[in-house]
Amino acid sequence: MSRIALVVGATGIVGQNLSARLVADGWVVYGLARRPRTESAGVLPVAADLLNPEALSAALAGLRPTHVFFCSWLRHATEAENCRVNSAMVRNLFHALPAPDAVEHAALTTGLKHYLGPFEAYASGTPPQTPFREDMPRLPLENFYYDQEDALYEAAQQHGFSWSVHRPHTVIGYAVGNAMNMGSTLAVYASLCKETGRPFVFPGSPMQWHGLTDLTDARQLARHLVWASTSAAGRNEAFNIVNGDVIRWKWLWPQLAAWFGLEAAPYPEEASPLTPKLAQDGELWASLSKKHGLREPDITHLASAWHTDADLGRPVECVTDMTKSRLAGFTDYCATPTAFFDLFTRMRAERLIP
C-alpha cells in the first residue's frame, strides 16, 4: 500500500525539506499550512488553521494519511500561552482527522529547548549537563514541548498508532519566510557586510565562540524523521538529531566569511547581537536587492535575527548525544560546514542573496 504523509507546517524549514524528501522517496504528500505554497513540486496543498477546529475538519475531510509529521508551532508572549496554544494545535489535528485509526505513525519535531528551557527562561539557573541525552528528566518549568509531547502520547494511545519525538539543535536549511532560520539570517548579514564593508563579527557569546556546539541540517532531520517513522526501532521513542560532528564557532566563522569573500573580523569577546543591526537595514536590503536583481526585497522574509541571537547568545555549551539513534540503526551524517555552504549556494542560485 502507498504511504501517505500529512506534513503539518509544510512551509517551514523542517516541513519544506521533509516534504521534498518524502516526494523524492515516492510518498503521497499532503502539506498543511495556513498559507500553503503551490510551487512545491509533488506536494498537495492543504490550507487550514490548526486553531480553527471546524475549518480544520473541513480541510482534512477525505484525507487518510498513514503517517503524520507535526512540524508546526506558534510563538506567544508567555510560555503559559505557548503551552496552551501549541498543545491545542496537536489535539485539534488528531481530532479533526476523519480516520485517525488509519494512522500508522505520528512524528513530532521539537528541539533542544527540551533540555535548555523555554525562551523566557532560556538556559537560566543551573546550566544543564552536557551532552544532552534523551533520558534526562524534564525541567521543572512550563515548556510547550512537554505539552505537545503529552498531546501526542494521548492521541497515540487513543488511536493505536506509534509515535516518535525528534529533538534537533538549530536547523540549517532552505526556507523563505521562516521564523527561525539561522542560516538564512547569517547569509543576509554576510551579504550586507560584503556590500557595505562592515566587519563580519560573530554576534554571539564568548561561550558559543570558544566552546563546543553542534547543529542540524534540515535534510539530516528529514532523513531521521523518515527513518523513525518506517523502522521498528523508531517506534515510541524520543531521539536527539544533529549532524554528527561538533564544531567551535571560532573555527567555522572564518569558513563562512571566506564563502562570501570576506575576512572574519576579530572576535570582541562579548556579544554584539544582530537584532539591532538588522532592524536598521530594511531599506538597505531593499536597495541591495534591486541592485543585484534579487527576488526578495523584504529583509524580514529572510532574516530572523531574534532567533539567531538567542541561539548564538547562549551562556552555556550545547553538545548533543546521538548514541540512541546510532544504536537503533540511524547512522547518517552531515558535515556542518557543508550544511551552510549548500544553503548559501542554493540561495544564490535562486537569487535570494547576491
The CATH homologous superfamily name of the largest domain equals NAD(P)-binding Rossmann-like Domain
Overall shape: it is globular
Query: What level of helicity do the residues show?
Result: 40-55%
Kindly name the structural category: alpha/beta
Number of helical stretches of at least 4 residues:
14
Q: Give the CATH topology of the largest domain.
A: Rossmann fold
- Total beta strands: 11
So, CATH architecture of the largest domain?
Answer: 3-Layer(aba) Sandwich
**Rg over CA atoms:** 20 Å
Q: Biggest sheet, in brief? A: 7 strands, parallel
Strand order of the largest sheet: 3-2-1-4-5-6-10
Q: Spans of 5+ residues with little confidence (pLDDT < 50)?
A: none
